[in-house]
Write a structure and sequence with these properties.
alpha+beta; 6 helices; 7 strands; disordered C terminus
C-alpha cells in the first residue's frame, strides 16, 4: 500500500509546505485548460484521477486579475473543490457546484497573509462540511469531516498536510495532492511531472516560461484577496470591562 507523503511536523514557524489545488469533478481537460489559458494561469493541469481533474498552483496570485487559486476555481465549471495549504499551518477549502459557491473553510484565519493581529484563530466555516462532502459525492461522511475540520491542531505535533491527507482519504480524493509542492520535480506517490501540463501565463513551452518570469514580480506585489474577507476578531473590547 502506498501512503501519501506529508512533511514532518516542526515548530510553530513558517517552515512547512505551501501549495494549492483546484479539483474539477469529471472535468474535461480541453475545457479546463481553455479557461486556464484565458485567465493567464501559471501552474499545472493534470489528467483525471479517480474522477477528478487537478489544477495545481503555488499560493498567491497565479492568474490575471489578481486571482489566486480560489478565484481560479470560481471560474471553472461543474463541481469544484479548492484546497490551499499555507506553510503547513493553515488549510483552506472552498466548493462550488454549477457555478454556485457552496461554502468556505479556513482552519486558522489569523494566519491569512495580511490578517490583523486580533483575528481569532478558531476554525471558521466548519458548518460547511456537508457542502464539501456533498460536492465530493460522500454526504455520508459529513460528521467525520466536520470533526476533522473543527480540530485545532498543535503545530508542534501535527501539520495541515496531515489533516488534509485524512480528508482526502475520507472523501475519496487523490491522496498524492499533499505532495504537489515537490513540483516541478516528480510527485511522490503521484504522477510524474512530465505527465502534467505546465502552463506559464496561460501558455505552454518556452514562451510561457518567459512570460511567467516577466510577470512574477508584479504578481508577488499584488496578492489575491483573503479566502474569508472579514473574519471575526477579538478587538474592540474595553479593557476596563474585563
Amino acid at each position: 500500500m502506498a501512503f501519501p507523503y506529508a512533511p514532518t511536523p516542526g515548530n510553530d514557524g513558517p517552515a512547512g509546505e505551501t501549495y494549492a489545488v483546484a479539483l474539477v469533478r469529471d472535468g474535461d481537460f480541453a475545457q479546463v485548460t481553455e479557461v486556464l489559458r484565458r485567465l493567464r494561469f501559471t501552474g499545472w493541469a493534470g489528467s483525471p484521477d479517480d474522477g477528478w481533474l487537478p489544477v495545481v498552483a503555488r499560493s498567491g496570485t497565479v492568474a490575471a486579475g489578481r486571482r489566486g487559486i480560489v478565484e481560479v476555481g470560481a471560474e471553472l465549471t461543474g463541481d469544484v473543490l479548492v484546497v490551499r495549504v499555507l506553510a503547513d499551518r493553515q488549510l483552506a477549502l472552498v466548493a462550488w457546484s454549477a457555478g454556485e459557491e457552496l461554502g468556505r473553510y479556513v482552519s486558522d484565519p489569523s494566519r491569512e497573509p495580511g490578517a490583523e493581529d486580533d483575528v481569532i484563530d478558531d476554525p471558521l466555516g466548519v458548518e460547511n462540511a456537508a457542502a464539501f462532502a456533498e460536492v465530493c459525492g460522500h454526504p455520508e461522511h459529513t460528521g467525520e469531516l466536520a470533526e476533522l475540520l473543527n480540530d485545532r491542531l498543535d503545530p508542534e505535533l501535527v501539520n495541515e498536510s496531515e489533516r488534509l491527507a485524512k480528508i482526502l482519504r475520507l472523501l475519496g480524493l487523490p491522496t498524492w495532492l499533499v505532495a504537489v509542492a515537490s513540483l516541478p520535480r516528480d510527485i511522490p506517490t503521484g504522477p510524474r511531472a512530465r505527465e502534467l501540463t505546465r502552463l506559464g501565463f496561460g501558455l505552454t513551452g518556452v514562451r510561457g516560461k518567459a512570460l511567467d518570469r516577466a510577470v512574477r514580480p508584479v504578481r508577488r506585489r499584488r496578492p489575491p484577496p483573503p479566502v474569508i474577507a472579514d473574519p471575526p476578531s477579538g478587538g474592540g473590547m474595553d479593557p476596563w470591562l474585563l
